[in-house]
Amino acid sequence: MPVDVDAAVISNTRLSEDYCVVALSAPAIAALARPGQFVMVKPARGTDPLLRRPFSIFEVLRDKAGAPAGISLLNKRVGTGTRLLYDLEAGARVACLGPLGRPFEPVDPPARAWMIAGGVGLAPFLTLGEALSARGTDTTLFYGARTASELYCVDRFERAGIRVFLTTEDGGRGGKGFVTAAVQGQLDLTPSGEPVHLYACGPTPMMRAAAAVAASYGRPCDVSLEQVMGCGLGGCYSCVVPVWDDAKPHFERSCIDGPVFDASRIAWEALAH
Amino acid sequence: MDLSVSIGSLRLANPLIAASGCFGYGVEYADIVDLSSLGAVAVKGLFLAEREGHPPPRIVETPSGMLNAIGLQGIGVRRFVAEKLPELRERRAVVFVNICGSTIDEYGEIARVLSDHEGVAAIELNISCPNIKEGGITFGCSLTGTHAVVSAVRKVTRLPVIPKLTPNVTDVASFARAAEEAGADAVSLVNTFLAMAIDVHTRRPRLSNIVGGLSGPAIRPIAVRMVYECRQVVRLPIIGIGGIASAEDVLEFMIAGATAVQVGTASFVDPFIWTKLLDGLRTYMARHGIDRLADVTGTIDTSKREQAWISS
Ligand SMILES: Cc1cc2nc3c(=O)[nH]c(=O)nc-3n(C[C@H](O)[C@H](O)[C@H](O)COP(=O)(O)O)c2cc1C
Question: What is the model's pTM?
Fold first, then answer.
Protein backbone atom coordinates (compact mmCIF):
# COMPACT_ATOMS: atom_id res chain seq x y z
CA MET A 1 0.00 0.00 0.00
CA PRO A 2 1.50 3.35 -1.02
CA VAL A 3 2.08 6.12 1.50
CA ASP A 4 2.34 9.86 1.00
CA VAL A 5 5.38 11.35 2.71
CA ASP A 6 6.20 15.02 3.13
CA ALA A 7 9.83 14.19 2.47
CA ALA A 8 12.79 16.37 3.41
CA VAL A 9 15.54 16.67 0.82
CA ILE A 10 18.66 15.18 2.46
CA SER A 11 20.93 16.21 -0.39
CA ASN A 12 20.83 17.11 -4.05
CA THR A 13 23.99 16.06 -5.85
CA ARG A 14 24.40 17.69 -9.27
CA LEU A 15 26.20 15.28 -11.54
CA SER A 16 26.21 17.66 -14.52
CA GLU A 17 24.31 20.58 -16.00
CA ASP A 18 21.30 18.29 -16.45
CA TYR A 19 21.56 15.33 -14.12
CA CYS A 20 21.24 15.16 -10.36
CA VAL A 21 20.56 12.65 -7.60
CA VAL A 22 17.99 13.84 -5.08
CA ALA A 23 18.06 12.02 -1.74
CA LEU A 24 14.79 12.12 0.19
CA SER A 25 14.05 11.20 3.78
CA ALA A 26 11.18 8.71 3.43
CA PRO A 27 11.61 5.66 5.67
CA ALA A 28 8.04 4.44 5.11
CA ILE A 29 8.50 4.33 1.34
CA ALA A 30 12.05 2.93 1.56
CA ALA A 31 10.82 0.05 3.72
CA LEU A 32 8.26 -1.05 1.12
CA ALA A 33 10.13 -0.34 -2.11
CA ARG A 34 10.83 -3.17 -4.55
CA PRO A 35 13.09 -2.99 -7.63
CA GLY A 36 11.59 -1.08 -10.54
CA GLN A 37 8.87 0.63 -8.52
CA PHE A 38 8.32 4.38 -8.71
CA VAL A 39 7.11 7.33 -6.67
CA MET A 40 4.90 10.29 -7.63
CA VAL A 41 6.67 13.51 -6.62
CA LYS A 42 5.19 17.00 -6.41
CA PRO A 43 8.21 19.17 -7.18
CA ALA A 44 6.73 22.38 -5.78
CA ARG A 45 3.81 23.55 -3.71
CA GLY A 46 0.99 25.43 -5.36
CA THR A 47 -0.85 24.75 -8.59
CA ASP A 48 1.69 25.52 -11.31
CA PRO A 49 2.87 22.93 -12.09
CA LEU A 50 -0.15 21.12 -10.75
CA LEU A 51 0.50 17.42 -11.07
CA ARG A 52 3.00 15.04 -9.56
CA ARG A 53 5.58 13.32 -11.74
CA PRO A 54 6.67 9.70 -11.72
CA PHE A 55 10.29 8.87 -10.82
CA SER A 56 11.91 5.47 -10.54
CA ILE A 57 13.36 4.74 -7.14
CA PHE A 58 17.12 4.94 -7.84
CA GLU A 59 18.52 3.93 -4.44
CA VAL A 60 17.10 2.75 -1.14
CA LEU A 61 19.09 4.70 1.44
CA ARG A 62 19.89 3.06 4.76
CA ASP A 63 20.94 4.44 8.13
CA LYS A 64 24.02 3.23 10.04
CA ALA A 65 22.08 0.30 11.49
CA GLY A 66 21.01 -0.72 7.97
CA ALA A 67 17.39 0.27 8.39
CA PRO A 68 15.62 1.86 5.39
CA ALA A 69 15.78 5.64 5.80
CA GLY A 70 15.01 7.13 2.43
CA ILE A 71 15.18 6.90 -1.31
CA SER A 72 17.01 8.75 -4.05
CA LEU A 73 15.88 9.75 -7.52
CA LEU A 74 18.02 10.09 -10.62
CA ASN A 75 16.69 13.22 -12.28
CA LYS A 76 17.35 14.64 -15.73
CA ARG A 77 16.34 18.23 -16.34
CA VAL A 78 13.99 18.26 -19.33
CA GLY A 79 10.92 20.28 -18.37
CA THR A 80 9.33 22.39 -15.67
CA GLY A 81 9.00 19.69 -13.02
CA THR A 82 12.45 18.19 -13.52
CA ARG A 83 13.98 21.68 -13.44
CA LEU A 84 12.32 22.38 -10.10
CA LEU A 85 13.69 19.09 -8.80
CA TYR A 86 17.17 19.93 -10.10
CA ASP A 87 17.05 23.25 -8.25
CA LEU A 88 15.93 21.80 -4.89
CA GLU A 89 18.25 22.44 -1.97
CA ALA A 90 18.81 20.26 1.10
CA GLY A 91 16.13 20.90 3.70
CA ALA A 92 13.36 21.58 1.18
CA ARG A 93 10.30 19.36 1.34
CA VAL A 94 8.48 17.55 -1.44
CA ALA A 95 5.34 15.42 -1.36
CA CYS A 96 6.32 11.91 -2.36
CA LEU A 97 3.77 9.11 -2.88
CA GLY A 98 4.83 5.49 -3.21
CA PRO A 99 6.04 2.92 -3.76
CA LEU A 100 3.89 2.33 -6.84
CA GLY A 101 3.67 -0.03 -9.78
CA ARG A 102 4.47 -3.59 -10.70
CA PRO A 103 8.12 -4.28 -9.84
CA PHE A 104 10.82 -6.21 -11.73
CA GLU A 105 11.03 -9.88 -10.80
CA PRO A 106 14.74 -10.67 -10.23
CA VAL A 107 15.83 -14.03 -11.69
CA ASP A 108 17.72 -16.67 -9.76
CA PRO A 109 20.89 -18.56 -10.75
CA PRO A 110 21.76 -20.33 -12.93
CA ALA A 111 20.06 -17.68 -15.08
CA ARG A 112 22.16 -14.59 -15.66
CA ALA A 113 20.72 -11.08 -15.65
CA TRP A 114 21.58 -8.46 -18.25
CA MET A 115 20.28 -4.99 -17.52
CA ILE A 116 20.19 -2.63 -20.52
CA ALA A 117 20.07 1.09 -19.74
CA GLY A 118 19.96 4.14 -21.98
CA GLY A 119 20.40 7.63 -20.49
CA VAL A 120 18.16 8.33 -17.51
CA GLY A 121 16.79 4.78 -18.00
CA LEU A 122 19.59 3.82 -15.65
CA ALA A 123 17.36 4.76 -12.73
CA PRO A 124 15.56 1.47 -11.90
CA PHE A 125 18.65 -0.73 -12.26
CA LEU A 126 20.55 -0.06 -9.07
CA THR A 127 17.83 -1.51 -6.86
CA LEU A 128 17.30 -4.35 -9.32
CA GLY A 129 21.05 -5.02 -9.52
CA GLU A 130 21.33 -5.14 -5.74
CA ALA A 131 18.38 -7.54 -5.50
CA LEU A 132 19.96 -9.77 -8.16
CA SER A 133 23.36 -9.73 -6.46
CA ALA A 134 21.74 -10.61 -3.15
CA ARG A 135 20.31 -13.75 -4.78
CA GLY A 136 23.72 -14.66 -6.17
CA THR A 137 22.61 -14.03 -9.74
CA ASP A 138 25.43 -13.12 -12.13
CA THR A 139 24.50 -9.59 -13.22
CA THR A 140 25.76 -7.30 -15.98
CA LEU A 141 24.76 -3.72 -16.73
CA PHE A 142 24.92 -2.62 -20.36
CA TYR A 143 24.78 1.15 -20.17
CA GLY A 144 24.80 3.47 -23.15
CA ALA A 145 24.84 7.23 -23.68
CA ARG A 146 25.71 9.60 -26.47
CA THR A 147 29.05 10.71 -24.99
CA ALA A 148 31.34 9.76 -22.10
CA SER A 149 30.27 12.78 -20.07
CA GLU A 150 26.69 11.49 -20.02
CA LEU A 151 27.53 8.24 -18.23
CA TYR A 152 26.80 8.51 -14.51
CA CYS A 153 27.18 6.57 -11.26
CA VAL A 154 29.07 3.68 -12.88
CA ASP A 155 31.10 3.15 -9.69
CA ARG A 156 27.88 2.78 -7.69
CA PHE A 157 27.05 -0.30 -9.78
CA GLU A 158 30.57 -1.72 -9.61
CA ARG A 159 30.53 -1.42 -5.82
CA ALA A 160 27.30 -3.44 -5.79
CA GLY A 161 29.13 -6.31 -7.51
CA ILE A 162 27.62 -5.68 -10.93
CA ARG A 163 29.71 -6.10 -14.09
CA VAL A 164 29.44 -2.96 -16.21
CA PHE A 165 29.66 -2.79 -19.99
CA LEU A 166 29.63 0.77 -21.34
CA THR A 167 28.89 2.13 -24.79
CA THR A 168 28.88 5.64 -26.25
CA GLU A 169 27.59 6.68 -29.62
CA ASP A 170 30.81 8.59 -30.36
CA GLY A 171 33.10 5.92 -28.93
CA GLY A 172 34.47 8.28 -26.28
CA ARG A 173 34.18 5.61 -23.58
CA GLY A 174 33.49 1.88 -23.80
CA GLY A 175 32.25 0.32 -27.02
CA LYS A 176 31.26 2.58 -29.91
CA GLY A 177 27.62 2.52 -31.02
CA PHE A 178 24.26 1.68 -29.54
CA VAL A 179 24.00 -0.26 -26.33
CA THR A 180 21.62 -2.77 -27.90
CA ALA A 181 24.28 -3.65 -30.49
CA ALA A 182 26.65 -4.48 -27.64
CA VAL A 183 24.01 -6.73 -26.10
CA GLN A 184 23.52 -8.46 -29.44
CA GLY A 185 27.29 -8.97 -29.72
CA GLN A 186 27.36 -10.64 -26.31
CA LEU A 187 24.36 -12.82 -27.14
CA ASP A 188 26.24 -14.04 -30.24
CA LEU A 189 28.96 -15.32 -27.90
CA THR A 190 26.50 -16.99 -25.51
CA PRO A 191 25.38 -20.59 -26.10
CA SER A 192 21.60 -20.67 -26.48
CA GLY A 193 21.34 -23.27 -23.70
CA GLU A 194 22.63 -20.79 -21.10
CA PRO A 195 19.70 -18.86 -19.64
CA VAL A 196 19.96 -15.06 -19.80
CA HIS A 197 17.17 -12.72 -18.71
CA LEU A 198 17.12 -9.20 -20.18
CA TYR A 199 15.80 -6.09 -18.45
CA ALA A 200 15.64 -2.80 -20.37
CA CYS A 201 14.85 0.83 -19.62
CA GLY A 202 15.58 3.92 -21.69
CA PRO A 203 14.31 5.84 -24.70
CA THR A 204 11.50 4.06 -26.55
CA PRO A 205 13.59 3.28 -29.70
CA MET A 206 16.24 1.71 -27.48
CA MET A 207 13.72 -0.46 -25.65
CA ARG A 208 12.12 -1.43 -28.91
CA ALA A 209 15.54 -2.49 -30.25
CA ALA A 210 16.19 -4.43 -27.03
CA ALA A 211 12.84 -6.18 -27.40
CA ALA A 212 13.69 -7.08 -31.01
CA VAL A 213 17.10 -8.48 -30.03
CA ALA A 214 15.52 -10.47 -27.18
CA ALA A 215 12.89 -11.89 -29.51
CA SER A 216 15.33 -12.89 -32.24
CA TYR A 217 17.58 -14.69 -29.73
CA GLY A 218 14.64 -16.25 -27.87
CA ARG A 219 15.50 -14.53 -24.57
CA PRO A 220 12.93 -13.25 -22.09
CA CYS A 221 12.95 -9.46 -21.71
CA ASP A 222 11.20 -7.11 -19.30
CA VAL A 223 10.98 -3.41 -20.05
CA SER A 224 10.12 -0.50 -17.77
CA LEU A 225 7.89 1.97 -19.62
CA GLU A 226 7.44 5.26 -17.87
CA GLN A 227 4.72 7.28 -19.54
CA VAL A 228 3.27 10.67 -18.67
CA MET A 229 1.05 9.98 -15.67
CA GLY A 230 -1.79 11.90 -14.06
CA CYS A 231 -2.29 10.03 -10.82
CA GLY A 232 -0.05 6.94 -10.67
CA LEU A 233 -2.85 4.93 -9.09
CA GLY A 234 -4.98 3.73 -12.00
CA GLY A 235 -7.56 6.49 -11.71
CA CYS A 236 -7.11 8.58 -14.85
CA TYR A 237 -6.09 6.30 -17.78
CA SER A 238 -3.49 8.81 -19.00
CA CYS A 239 -0.40 6.62 -18.99
CA VAL A 240 -1.59 3.79 -21.20
CA VAL A 241 0.63 1.68 -23.44
CA PRO A 242 -0.51 -0.51 -26.35
CA VAL A 243 -0.29 -4.20 -25.47
CA TRP A 244 -1.09 -7.16 -27.75
CA ASP A 245 -4.23 -8.99 -26.85
CA ASP A 246 -5.07 -11.76 -29.34
CA ALA A 247 -4.88 -10.06 -32.72
CA LYS A 248 -5.23 -6.40 -31.79
CA PRO A 249 -3.48 -4.05 -29.38
CA HIS A 250 -5.37 -2.65 -26.42
CA PHE A 251 -4.32 -0.03 -23.88
CA GLU A 252 -3.07 -0.95 -20.40
CA ARG A 253 -2.20 1.49 -17.64
CA SER A 254 1.56 1.70 -17.12
CA CYS A 255 1.03 2.86 -13.51
CA ILE A 256 -0.70 -0.26 -12.19
CA ASP A 257 -0.33 -2.88 -14.95
CA GLY A 258 3.31 -1.68 -15.35
CA PRO A 259 5.65 0.14 -15.47
CA VAL A 260 7.32 -3.26 -15.97
CA PHE A 261 5.95 -5.23 -18.92
CA ASP A 262 7.03 -8.35 -20.77
CA ALA A 263 8.61 -6.78 -23.87
CA SER A 264 6.97 -9.32 -26.18
CA ARG A 265 3.51 -8.06 -25.17
CA ILE A 266 4.14 -4.44 -26.20
CA ALA A 267 2.77 -3.27 -29.56
CA TRP A 268 5.93 -1.27 -30.29
CA GLU A 269 4.79 0.11 -33.65
CA ALA A 270 1.77 1.69 -31.92
CA LEU A 271 3.73 3.17 -28.98
CA ALA A 272 4.06 6.94 -29.34
CA HIS A 273 7.65 8.12 -29.20
CA MET B 1 -22.35 17.72 13.37
CA ASP B 2 -24.39 16.56 10.41
CA LEU B 3 -22.55 16.52 7.10
CA SER B 4 -25.20 14.56 5.23
CA VAL B 5 -26.95 15.90 2.15
CA SER B 6 -29.96 14.75 0.14
CA ILE B 7 -30.20 14.41 -3.61
CA GLY B 8 -33.84 13.62 -4.20
CA SER B 9 -34.55 10.36 -2.37
CA LEU B 10 -30.86 9.67 -2.00
CA ARG B 11 -29.11 10.50 1.26
CA LEU B 12 -25.33 10.90 1.15
CA ALA B 13 -23.18 10.78 4.31
CA ASN B 14 -21.42 13.95 3.14
CA PRO B 15 -21.32 16.13 0.02
CA LEU B 16 -18.02 14.77 -1.37
CA ILE B 17 -18.22 12.70 -4.54
CA ALA B 18 -15.27 11.35 -6.51
CA ALA B 19 -15.63 12.77 -10.04
CA SER B 20 -16.09 10.45 -12.99
CA GLY B 21 -12.96 9.58 -14.91
CA CYS B 22 -10.75 10.70 -12.06
CA PHE B 23 -11.20 7.70 -9.75
CA GLY B 24 -11.10 4.70 -12.13
CA TYR B 25 -13.85 2.27 -11.23
CA GLY B 26 -13.34 3.10 -7.55
CA VAL B 27 -11.82 -0.30 -6.82
CA GLU B 28 -8.35 0.98 -7.77
CA TYR B 29 -8.50 3.21 -4.69
CA ALA B 30 -10.04 0.72 -2.26
CA ASP B 31 -6.73 0.08 -0.47
CA ILE B 32 -5.96 3.71 0.26
CA VAL B 33 -9.40 5.35 0.58
CA ASP B 34 -12.30 4.03 2.63
CA LEU B 35 -14.86 4.13 -0.18
CA SER B 36 -17.76 4.13 2.28
CA SER B 37 -16.46 7.38 3.81
CA LEU B 38 -17.19 9.29 0.59
CA GLY B 39 -20.61 10.75 -0.14
CA ALA B 40 -20.48 8.78 -3.38
CA VAL B 41 -18.14 7.49 -6.05
CA ALA B 42 -18.84 8.39 -9.71
CA VAL B 43 -17.15 5.71 -11.78
CA LYS B 44 -15.48 6.21 -15.13
CA GLY B 45 -17.83 6.85 -18.07
CA LEU B 46 -19.22 3.66 -19.57
CA PHE B 47 -20.67 2.85 -22.97
CA LEU B 48 -22.61 -0.32 -23.66
CA ALA B 49 -19.52 -1.86 -25.32
CA GLU B 50 -15.84 -1.79 -24.46
CA ARG B 51 -13.82 1.11 -25.89
CA GLU B 52 -10.12 1.65 -26.42
CA GLY B 53 -10.05 5.44 -26.17
CA HIS B 54 -7.51 7.73 -27.82
CA PRO B 55 -3.80 6.99 -28.29
CA PRO B 56 -1.37 8.82 -25.98
CA PRO B 57 -0.47 11.55 -25.27
CA ARG B 58 -3.77 11.83 -23.42
CA ILE B 59 -2.97 14.60 -20.94
CA VAL B 60 -0.93 17.77 -20.77
CA GLU B 61 -0.44 20.23 -17.93
CA THR B 62 -1.44 23.87 -18.30
CA PRO B 63 -1.26 26.70 -15.75
CA SER B 64 -3.20 25.55 -12.65
CA GLY B 65 -4.88 22.87 -14.69
CA MET B 66 -4.61 20.07 -17.18
CA LEU B 67 -6.07 19.03 -20.50
CA ASN B 68 -7.26 15.49 -21.06
CA ALA B 69 -8.44 13.56 -24.06
CA ILE B 70 -8.77 10.03 -22.77
CA GLY B 71 -11.57 9.23 -25.21
CA LEU B 72 -13.61 7.23 -22.70
CA GLN B 73 -11.55 4.05 -22.63
CA GLY B 74 -13.72 1.63 -20.73
CA ILE B 75 -14.83 -1.94 -20.14
CA GLY B 76 -18.48 -1.48 -21.08
CA VAL B 77 -21.45 -1.67 -18.76
CA ARG B 78 -21.83 -5.47 -18.71
CA ARG B 79 -18.26 -6.13 -17.63
CA PHE B 80 -18.64 -3.32 -15.10
CA VAL B 81 -21.60 -4.91 -13.35
CA ALA B 82 -19.93 -8.33 -13.44
CA GLU B 83 -16.37 -7.39 -12.49
CA LYS B 84 -16.43 -4.13 -10.51
CA LEU B 85 -19.84 -3.66 -8.94
CA PRO B 86 -19.59 -6.63 -6.52
CA GLU B 87 -16.43 -5.22 -4.93
CA LEU B 88 -17.91 -1.73 -4.75
CA ARG B 89 -20.94 -3.19 -2.96
CA GLU B 90 -18.70 -5.13 -0.58
CA ARG B 91 -16.86 -1.89 0.23
CA ARG B 92 -20.21 -0.19 0.83
CA ALA B 93 -19.54 2.53 -1.73
CA VAL B 94 -22.45 4.68 -2.90
CA VAL B 95 -22.04 4.22 -6.63
CA PHE B 96 -22.96 6.76 -9.31
CA VAL B 97 -22.54 5.17 -12.72
CA ASN B 98 -21.54 7.70 -15.37
CA ILE B 99 -22.93 6.56 -18.73
CA CYS B 100 -22.39 7.65 -22.30
CA GLY B 101 -24.15 6.75 -25.52
CA SER B 102 -23.76 7.31 -29.24
CA THR B 103 -27.54 7.25 -29.56
CA ILE B 104 -30.48 7.92 -27.27
CA ASP B 105 -31.32 4.23 -27.40
CA GLU B 106 -27.87 3.37 -26.10
CA TYR B 107 -28.38 5.56 -23.02
CA GLY B 108 -31.70 3.81 -22.40
CA GLU B 109 -30.19 0.36 -22.88
CA ILE B 110 -27.34 1.03 -20.43
CA ALA B 111 -29.80 2.44 -17.88
CA ARG B 112 -31.91 -0.71 -18.19
CA VAL B 113 -28.88 -2.94 -17.57
CA LEU B 114 -27.91 -0.91 -14.51
CA SER B 115 -31.46 -0.89 -13.11
CA ASP B 116 -31.37 -4.69 -12.95
CA HIS B 117 -28.46 -4.68 -10.51
CA GLU B 118 -28.20 -4.05 -6.79
CA GLY B 119 -25.58 -1.55 -5.76
CA VAL B 120 -26.15 1.29 -8.21
CA ALA B 121 -27.28 4.42 -6.35
CA ALA B 122 -27.72 6.78 -9.30
CA ILE B 123 -27.10 7.17 -13.01
CA GLU B 124 -25.09 10.18 -14.13
CA LEU B 125 -25.68 10.94 -17.81
CA ASN B 126 -22.51 12.06 -19.49
CA ILE B 127 -23.87 14.33 -22.22
CA SER B 128 -20.83 16.54 -21.92
CA CYS B 129 -17.61 14.71 -22.82
CA PRO B 130 -15.74 17.04 -25.20
CA ASN B 131 -13.38 14.33 -26.44
CA ILE B 132 -15.49 12.06 -28.57
CA LYS B 133 -17.06 12.77 -31.90
CA GLU B 134 -20.26 10.78 -31.79
CA GLY B 135 -22.89 11.08 -29.06
CA GLY B 136 -22.33 12.56 -25.63
CA ILE B 137 -21.76 16.25 -26.07
CA THR B 138 -23.92 16.47 -29.21
CA PHE B 139 -26.88 15.86 -26.89
CA GLY B 140 -25.46 18.12 -24.20
CA CYS B 141 -25.09 21.05 -26.60
CA SER B 142 -28.68 21.01 -27.76
CA LEU B 143 -31.67 21.75 -25.53
CA THR B 144 -33.87 19.26 -27.38
CA GLY B 145 -31.08 16.66 -27.28
CA THR B 146 -30.67 17.10 -23.52
CA HIS B 147 -34.41 16.83 -23.00
CA ALA B 148 -34.62 13.74 -25.20
CA VAL B 149 -31.81 11.82 -23.46
CA VAL B 150 -33.09 12.60 -19.97
CA SER B 151 -36.69 11.66 -20.85
CA ALA B 152 -35.59 8.41 -22.49
CA VAL B 153 -33.59 7.33 -19.45
CA ARG B 154 -36.28 8.58 -17.07
CA LYS B 155 -38.77 6.20 -18.75
CA VAL B 156 -36.69 3.07 -18.20
CA THR B 157 -35.35 3.46 -14.65
CA ARG B 158 -36.43 4.31 -11.13
CA LEU B 159 -32.86 5.15 -10.17
CA PRO B 160 -32.06 8.83 -9.68
CA VAL B 161 -31.07 10.33 -13.05
CA ILE B 162 -28.40 13.04 -12.98
CA PRO B 163 -27.44 14.61 -16.31
CA LYS B 164 -23.93 16.05 -16.28
CA LEU B 165 -23.84 19.36 -18.11
CA THR B 166 -21.16 20.82 -20.32
CA PRO B 167 -19.87 24.36 -19.82
CA ASN B 168 -19.27 24.61 -23.58
CA VAL B 169 -22.59 26.37 -24.20
CA THR B 170 -23.69 29.99 -24.01
CA ASP B 171 -26.30 29.57 -21.27
CA VAL B 172 -25.85 26.55 -19.00
CA ALA B 173 -28.92 27.44 -16.95
CA SER B 174 -31.24 26.78 -19.87
CA PHE B 175 -29.81 23.27 -20.09
CA ALA B 176 -30.42 22.74 -16.38
CA ARG B 177 -34.02 23.81 -16.98
CA ALA B 178 -34.40 21.40 -19.92
CA ALA B 179 -33.09 18.59 -17.72
CA GLU B 180 -35.51 19.49 -14.94
CA GLU B 181 -38.46 19.57 -17.32
CA ALA B 182 -37.49 16.13 -18.65
CA GLY B 183 -37.63 14.62 -15.16
CA ALA B 184 -34.04 14.68 -13.93
CA ASP B 185 -33.49 14.23 -10.17
CA ALA B 186 -30.45 16.51 -10.07
CA VAL B 187 -27.88 18.02 -12.41
CA SER B 188 -24.11 17.89 -12.09
CA LEU B 189 -21.91 20.60 -13.57
CA VAL B 190 -19.46 21.16 -15.02
CA ASN B 191 -17.62 18.74 -17.24
CA THR B 192 -14.35 19.99 -18.77
CA PHE B 193 -13.89 23.05 -20.99
CA LEU B 194 -12.89 22.34 -24.59
CA ALA B 195 -9.31 23.55 -24.95
CA MET B 196 -6.01 22.94 -26.68
CA ALA B 197 -2.25 23.32 -26.31
CA ILE B 198 0.46 23.45 -29.00
CA ASP B 199 4.20 22.81 -28.87
CA VAL B 200 5.54 25.90 -30.66
CA HIS B 201 8.86 24.28 -31.55
CA THR B 202 7.36 21.32 -33.40
CA ARG B 203 4.06 23.17 -34.13
CA ARG B 204 2.26 20.00 -33.15
CA PRO B 205 -0.74 19.70 -30.84
CA ARG B 206 0.24 18.36 -27.42
CA LEU B 207 -2.67 15.90 -27.35
CA SER B 208 -3.13 13.11 -29.89
CA ASN B 209 -6.78 14.14 -30.18
CA ILE B 210 -5.65 17.75 -30.93
CA VAL B 211 -8.26 19.16 -28.51
CA GLY B 212 -9.09 18.11 -24.95
CA GLY B 213 -10.92 19.16 -21.81
CA LEU B 214 -9.53 21.63 -19.28
CA SER B 215 -9.97 20.78 -15.59
CA GLY B 216 -8.42 21.79 -12.27
CA PRO B 217 -8.24 25.04 -10.26
CA ALA B 218 -8.05 27.11 -13.48
CA ILE B 219 -11.75 26.48 -14.19
CA ARG B 220 -13.13 26.89 -10.68
CA PRO B 221 -14.39 30.51 -10.81
CA ILE B 222 -16.24 29.82 -14.06
CA ALA B 223 -17.79 26.67 -12.62
CA VAL B 224 -18.90 28.52 -9.48
CA ARG B 225 -20.57 31.16 -11.64
CA MET B 226 -22.38 28.47 -13.63
CA VAL B 227 -23.68 26.76 -10.49
CA TYR B 228 -24.89 30.14 -9.26
CA GLU B 229 -26.69 30.81 -12.56
CA CYS B 230 -28.38 27.41 -12.53
CA ARG B 231 -29.48 27.89 -8.93
CA GLN B 232 -31.50 30.93 -10.08
CA VAL B 233 -33.61 28.95 -12.53
CA VAL B 234 -34.01 25.37 -11.27
CA ARG B 235 -35.19 23.80 -8.01
CA LEU B 236 -33.27 20.58 -8.62
CA PRO B 237 -30.31 19.71 -6.42
CA ILE B 238 -27.09 20.78 -8.13
CA ILE B 239 -23.82 18.89 -7.85
CA GLY B 240 -21.00 21.41 -8.30
CA ILE B 241 -17.79 20.37 -10.09
CA GLY B 242 -14.68 22.19 -11.22
CA GLY B 243 -11.25 22.67 -9.66
CA ILE B 244 -12.19 21.88 -6.08
CA ALA B 245 -9.04 21.33 -4.02
CA SER B 246 -9.89 22.53 -0.48
CA ALA B 247 -12.77 22.66 2.00
CA GLU B 248 -13.10 26.35 1.21
CA ASP B 249 -13.65 25.48 -2.45
CA VAL B 250 -16.36 22.97 -1.47
CA LEU B 251 -18.08 25.65 0.58
CA GLU B 252 -17.85 28.19 -2.21
CA PHE B 253 -19.80 25.87 -4.50
CA MET B 254 -22.34 25.06 -1.78
CA ILE B 255 -22.92 28.70 -0.95
CA ALA B 256 -23.40 29.40 -4.66
CA GLY B 257 -26.15 26.79 -4.68
CA ALA B 258 -24.65 23.28 -4.84
CA THR B 259 -26.07 20.51 -2.65
CA ALA B 260 -23.02 18.31 -3.18
CA VAL B 261 -19.74 18.51 -5.08
CA GLN B 262 -17.35 16.34 -7.07
CA VAL B 263 -13.59 16.37 -6.88
CA GLY B 264 -11.52 15.18 -9.83
CA THR B 265 -8.13 16.61 -10.74
CA ALA B 266 -7.23 17.51 -7.15
CA SER B 267 -7.43 13.86 -6.15
CA PHE B 268 -4.71 13.08 -8.71
CA VAL B 269 -2.45 15.48 -6.85
CA ASP B 270 -3.52 14.23 -3.42
CA PRO B 271 -5.31 10.89 -3.32
CA PHE B 272 -5.77 11.34 0.43
CA ILE B 273 -7.62 14.64 -0.03
CA TRP B 274 -10.97 13.31 1.19
CA THR B 275 -10.23 13.23 4.93
CA LYS B 276 -8.61 16.66 4.66
CA LEU B 277 -11.73 18.09 3.00
CA LEU B 278 -13.99 16.53 5.63
CA ASP B 279 -11.82 17.90 8.45
CA GLY B 280 -11.91 21.33 6.84
CA LEU B 281 -15.70 21.24 6.54
CA ARG B 282 -16.03 20.31 10.24
CA THR B 283 -13.69 23.13 11.23
CA TYR B 284 -15.78 25.60 9.23
CA MET B 285 -19.02 24.32 10.78
CA ALA B 286 -17.59 24.65 14.28
CA ARG B 287 -16.29 28.14 13.59
CA HIS B 288 -19.61 29.35 12.19
CA GLY B 289 -21.87 27.40 14.56
CA ILE B 290 -23.43 25.29 11.81
CA ASP B 291 -25.09 22.00 12.84
CA ARG B 292 -26.25 20.84 9.43
CA LEU B 293 -23.91 21.35 6.52
CA ALA B 294 -26.87 21.11 4.13
CA ASP B 295 -28.08 24.45 5.52
CA VAL B 296 -25.16 26.16 3.79
CA THR B 297 -26.49 25.44 0.30
CA GLY B 298 -27.56 28.53 -1.61
CA THR B 299 -26.89 30.93 1.26
CA ILE B 300 -24.97 33.45 -0.82
CA ASP B 301 -25.62 36.98 0.41
CA THR B 302 -25.69 39.28 -2.59
CA SER B 303 -26.92 42.25 -0.58
CA LYS B 304 -23.32 43.20 0.24
CA ARG B 305 -19.95 42.75 -1.45
CA GLU B 306 -16.82 41.35 0.12
CA GLN B 307 -14.19 44.09 0.03
CA ALA B 308 -11.49 41.85 -1.31
CA TRP B 309 -8.85 44.52 -1.67
CA ILE B 310 -9.05 45.26 2.04
CA SER B 311 -9.50 41.76 3.44
CA SER B 312 -6.77 40.15 1.36
C1 LIG C 1 -8.57 12.45 -16.88
C2 LIG C 1 -10.03 12.85 -16.79
C3 LIG C 1 -11.02 11.96 -17.22
C4 LIG C 1 -12.38 12.30 -17.15
N5 LIG C 1 -13.33 11.40 -17.54
C6 LIG C 1 -14.64 11.70 -17.40
C7 LIG C 1 -15.66 10.74 -17.70
O8 LIG C 1 -15.37 9.59 -18.07
N9 LIG C 1 -16.97 11.12 -17.58
C10 LIG C 1 -17.32 12.37 -17.14
O11 LIG C 1 -18.51 12.66 -17.04
N12 LIG C 1 -16.38 13.28 -16.81
C13 LIG C 1 -15.05 12.98 -16.93
N14 LIG C 1 -14.11 13.92 -16.57
C15 LIG C 1 -14.53 15.23 -16.05
C16 LIG C 1 -14.51 15.26 -14.53
O17 LIG C 1 -15.42 14.33 -13.98
C18 LIG C 1 -14.86 16.67 -14.02
O19 LIG C 1 -16.13 17.04 -14.47
C20 LIG C 1 -13.83 17.71 -14.47
O21 LIG C 1 -12.53 17.18 -14.46
C22 LIG C 1 -13.85 18.98 -13.62
O23 LIG C 1 -13.54 18.71 -12.27
P24 LIG C 1 -12.06 18.87 -11.62
O25 LIG C 1 -11.57 20.22 -11.98
O26 LIG C 1 -12.25 18.64 -10.15
O27 LIG C 1 -11.22 17.80 -12.25
C28 LIG C 1 -12.74 13.58 -16.64
C29 LIG C 1 -11.75 14.46 -16.22
C30 LIG C 1 -10.40 14.12 -16.28
C31 LIG C 1 -9.37 15.11 -15.79
Answer: 0.95
